[in-house]
Amino acid sequence: MIKAFRDTWELGIHSYLTYLRDRLLLAKELLHESGSVFVQISDENMHHVRELMDEILGQQNFIGQIVFRKKTMPLGTNFLECMDDFILWYGREKSSTKYNQLYVFKSVEGDQDWKWVQFSDTEVRQVTKEEHQSHNLVPLESDIFRLKSLEPSGAMPDGMFEPSYRDVVYEYPKNGYGTNVKGMERLICSNRVQPKGKLLNYKLFLKDYPVTVLNTNWRDTVGADDKRYVVQTNTDVISRCVLMTTDPGDLVLDPTCGSGTTAFVAERWGRRWITCDTSRVAVTLAKQRLMTASYDYFELKYPHEGLRSGFIYKTVPHVTLKSIANNPEIDEIYARMHPAVETALAALNAILPDSASFPRRRESKVFVASLDSRLRGNDDSAGQSGNEGDLKEWQVPFDFPVDWPEAAKKPFDAFHAARQAMQKQMDASIAAHAGQEILYDQPAVSKSKLRITGPFTVEAVPFATVLGLDEAEQPKEADIAVARSGATWRQSQWRDELLKAGIRGKGGQKIQLLDLVPLPGAKYIHAIGTVADTGDKVAVSFGPEHAALEQRQVEIAMREAGELFPLPKMLVFCAFTFDPEAAKDIDTIKGITALRVQMNTDLLTEDLKKGRASNESFWLMGQPDVVVKQIKAGCYQVEVRGFDYFDTKTGELKSGGKKNIAMWALDTDYDNRSLFPRQVFFPMAGSGDGWNKLRKDIRAELNEELLEQFHGTVSLPFKAGENECIAVKIVDDRGIESLKVINLDRISV
């Protein structure tokens, strides 16, 4: 886990608030009027951040304070320990802020209200103690429900009536019922009420509305998944912020990149993104994370319109009392299908009187006395004896009694078949007339496709330079090289580190320096020194801290080195990354030994540098040995023969061969701006590595015949592109990258 970027501020909270203020001011300028700002903060300084955001974004634009669980367990404190972090949410313009309601699925296990279960044949009973704690024990094809009061919060005159249910007249509550007489009839016909004391209650099934709205208290977000960074946030937390306030195709900005979690989440959910950081290590972590990630492929609502059309989302029903009470189809279904129930019941009653006796009720020990587990619904007419009148609908048992005559079996089955068919139609109508809630965090996932991160660029901007009074006059023409030149305090550190650690070469070789001192007056030769073994003079040019070493620096450094006396034998360019044209110029320098040295990004972070065992922070880069052949007119093939390494003992370039090439990529139509790998090879990959590992990571189907061709050092034949230029990027077994650019118009058959 990277520990280099823990929050440290020179002036404590004052430095942090200044840092945050600058970013909030920028966010305010960049945000669309429907945009949002989220700031994560601990309880220690939340009040300061809230005041700052009120000042910059406006107190009237405060939307919410989200509390989310961060710690899995207490770490120990002298007083009450806070287990949470906080997110402050502001809108650019609160009245115009975009908002998508998110939901979480209800968890009602152990809830004392959700204690009833109804089976597919409409039999009702209370759950057992074990079922109450684990709904997995509830029989299949059954639905959990609770009884909900039908009394509205305010008086409702139309609801002040006494309904009749199963030959019993019930009172109305103080404010009346929450529906009128017609609505109550529909509730009764659709089997949606159940008595509780002297009142009728509404049967609210869990499936009617299986979710609840997401509020500001998030208790299911403990810890970061796949944590690789000290202050890394759980992806679920950022996902909710993104999904609540953006749509597919919208742009998300994170000015504090860290490990790239926001960019990762935005890419996953089909949002465009920009992320930035002052640390190259953070950017490198984010780049690696994005390049190795795979995502589900979400089905587009209108594929021909692209991402802006949005995804196809899952939905859940939202059945309400109002939607049932106002559903006219219930009347039509009852009028059409209930006669079949009555006919079957009449046929059953016509047979049963011939029998001496038959059971109508059997009390269960585990259920309340007013509800029979063997009979459908509630029978408050307890005390009726066996042969007292015909059976009512709710008195017919669900299982055929063993002492009933066999002749009653057919009408018995016909009664239940007709009743269940009517109930099924009722339930279907209720579901059809219910509202639907969109689950924005559950788009439809393709079973045949998988996504990887789309194209993105990594760009660097140099720090601004503050000029002294004697430097106030600016050049008449802007020169990008001027902005990227000049000594920095970092270069002093790099010089000390280079003198101490030396430059690591191939096979354990090392260029150790005897001395290394700055060179006053030079623009791009930052130091001169002496090689310990040979006594040769060496000039050193450091690349920028937050940009690639460019062609202009190579040109000026070469000129400055030529003016030195005595003339240095070696010119060493040290950089975190090299511009392709600059790398090409360095490799072709004549008359002086020019070397490219890769600087480890750990040099930008004091914690990581000190934690290294040997601090070998400078690596000698090899020159790619690449041959291009024209097979036939307009058709080419590339062969990579390896790296040419500088031998520190002999002072000569020697071929490193092909065995140390871990990966190489070919862009067959290089535009001299960005590399687009059209062929990728893994020469060192074993049977389970390279493309095979990538196939496993992204769960893709790859052509087995082509896989073998992409393990070698010879490319597949290709035609010249519009730019008539190719680029070959090689990565050796140390992770050192090198790029060679070749113009095809110079290649002959």
| Major pleated sheet | 6 strands, mixed
**Which term fits the overall shape?**
elongated
Mean pLDDT: 83
SS-based class: alpha+beta
Q: How many separate domains?
A: 4
| Rg for CA atoms | 38 Å
Query: Which strand-content bin applies to the residues?
Result: 15-25%
What order do the strands of the largest sheet run in, or round the barrel if closed?
22-23-24-25-26-27
Count every helix, treating DSSP H or I runs of 4 or more residues as helices: 17
Give the CA-CA distance, first to last residue.
Answer: 52 Å
What is the total tally of β strands? 35
Low-confidence stretches: 1-6, 360-387, 463-469, 471-486
**Helix amount:** 10-25%
Features:
alpha+beta, disordered N terminus, 25% strand, single chain, 35 strands, 4 domains, 17 helices, 749 residues, Rossmann fold, five-stranded antiparallel β-sheet
Describe this structure in words.
By secondary structure, the chain is an alpha+beta fold. Helices cover 25% and strands 25% of the residues. The chain contains 17 helices and 35 strands. The longest helix has 24 residues, at 409-432. Residues 1-6, 360-387, 463-469 and 471-486 have low confidence and may be disordered.
Short description:
This protein is an alpha+beta fold.
Topology summary:
Blueprint: H1 13-30, E1 36-41, H2 46-57, E2 62-69, E3 84-91, E4 103-105, E5 116-119, E6 124-126, H3 129-133, E7 142-149, E8 164-165, E9 168-169, H4 181-189, E10 193-196, E11 199-205, E12 211-213, E13 217-218, H5 235-245, E14 251-254, H6 261-268, E15 272-275, H7 280-291, E16 294-298, E17 313-318, H8 321-325, H9 329-351, H10 409-432, E18 435-443, E19 445-452, H11 480-483, H12 489-501, E20 503-504, E21 510-511, E22 513-518, E23 527-531, E24 537-542, H13 551-562, E25 570-575, H14 580-587, E26 593-599, H15 606-611, E27 618-620, E28 623-632, E29 635-647, E30 652-655, E31 661-667, E32 679-681, H16 691-698, H17 704-709, E33 718-719, E34 725-732, E35 737-743
Parallel strand pairs: 2-13, 14-15, 24-25, 25-26
Antiparallel strand pairs: 1-3, 2-3, 4-12, 5-6, 5-7, 7-11, 8-9, 10-11, 16-19, 17-18, 20-21, 22-23, 23-24, 26-27, 28-29, 29-30, 29-33, 31-32, 31-34, 34-35
Helix pairs in contact: 1-2, 5-6, 9-10, 13-14
